[in-house]
Amino acid sequence: GVRVASSKGEGLECHLPGNVLYAWHPHGFVSYVPSHLMGKDALSGQPHGTEWFGTCIPLLFKVPFLGEIFTVTNARPVDTKTVNSILSKGRGISVQPGGVKEQAATRHDQEQAFFPARLGFIRLAIKYGIPLMPVYFFGENQLFKRVDGFEWFTSAVQKATGMTMPVATAKWGIPMAGVTPLATDIHVRWGRPVHAGPADSNPSEERVQEVFARYVAELQRVWDLHAKDCLPPEVVAKGLKIVLPQKKSEVPMSRL
After folding, report:
1. What is the DSSP string of 34-75?
2. What tens digit of pLDDT does each residue of 40-64 get?
């Protein structure tokens, strides 16, 4: 099955009183690890002693049973009102910066990190003056195998339903089987905190870009340090593909 084989990193050794903004990578085909394996940590406030909430697109909370499961495991809709409510109460959140654009492009043979044009997760950290911490789930992308040639289908489903559904196969070659992933060891790596500085609800673009540059550098450091021990050699050889913000007209609207 799928298991968290290891969880380590400098971030676990940090004393971080108060709330933290965890940003996880990669999104994966269905974000299996954060939705199935991290709820207990969120509820218990691990690893830094403050309760935190995972986030995902609001549409998923309308799916029967799935929304209820997400709610009891500390997942919440990633909309501005909800996120601000959580952070204003001194609790932490986790977000996936690449969102549906990264999900649609997910591959089992290429690690990627997408970022939105507005950099809402950076602005949130600055607004509340809280640290960001990159968390990398090595193995998330290998839980399923992408089937090329069906990008048109993913696009059509997204336009019709708002759901992103990259075509992939799972255990026994079953297509689109989000609940039967390939047996994979997951290695969670917690990066060093990236401090956003004093709280500022209206930061300059220069400050946003400066914090973002430090965040990307830390994410890259975590990947470079651990990839060779946590991923197949052929995936490591391709490196981590960083997809930087594009023009807003080219990126799906961010709720942050």
Report:
1. HHHHSHHHHHHTTTTTS-EEEEE-GGGGGSTTHHHHHHHTTE
2. 899 999 999 999 999 998 988 988 8
User: By C-alpha distance, which of 146, 216, 228 is closest to 187?
Assistant: 228
Q: How many CB atoms lie within 10 A of CB 50?
A: 15
How far CA 200 is from CA of 65, 85, 91, 195, 214, in Å, comes to 39, 17, 18, 13, 18
pLDDT in tens, 74-133: 999 999 999 999 999 999 999 999 999 999 999 999 999 999 999 999 999 999 999 999
Contact criterion met (CB below 8 Å) for 26 and 140: yes
SS3 222: helix
| No. of helices (H) and no. of strands (E), the chain | 9, 11
Paired sense of beta strands 184-190 and 132-138, if any:
antiparallel
Q: Is the CB of residue 137 less than 8 Å from the CB of residue 114?
A: no
Question: Looking at the whole model, is its pTM more than 0.70?
Answer: yes
DSSP 192: -
HEC string of 199-213 equals: CCCCCCHHHHHHHHH
Amino acid identity, position 132:
L
Q: 178 vs 54, 127, 156, CA distance in Å?
A: 19, 36, 19
CA dihedral 161, 112, 121, 8 (to 10 degrees): 120
Contact 191/12 with Cβ under 8 angstroms?
no
CA pair distance 67, 180, nearest whole angstrom: 20
